[in-house]
Target: Nucleoside triphosphate/diphosphate phosphatase
Amino acid sequence: MGIPTEGETIQVHSYKHDGKIHRVWQETVVLKGTKNIVIGGNEKTLVTESDGRTWLTREPSICYFHAKHWFNIICMLREDGVYYYVNLSSPFIFEHGSLKYIDYDLDVKVFPDMNYIILDEDEYALHKRLMNYPPVIDPIMKHNIEELIRWIKLRKGPFAPEFIEVWTERYQFYKQLNEREF
Model:
């Protein structure tokens, strides 16, 4: 497993537990890359679904991936504030120019005021049965939702206002740099 380089453009691949591709984001600029954390930025990037449908992301986003936590966080920068979409997922790996993780269905939507809702519990239950999630997955998901809620309440990591400021500024730097190169 490699480490993505700051300024490098990578793909993000989301898989399901059965090994099938779920979704691919074509271009994410690496803002920070270490063996444990990858922070990326993208805007109007092409997303391809498992059934071949495609769509473009609407707003600039800062993405946070961790190699030890079972969640990743998408910070969507909208006019009325930052909205967060959290995927409960396996820790990431980075190989062959792509960041990869397994999506475990459960999601948490966090609003600018830090209120949140847990989504897709029914999808998790269905896929757990259909894809035979091992029994260890339930306690991992429970623990990571609790950890995530703690982060939200403490405004830790991507939920801290300074996180958004720092990484948005870095993303804008690379965006302008890339525009000059073309």
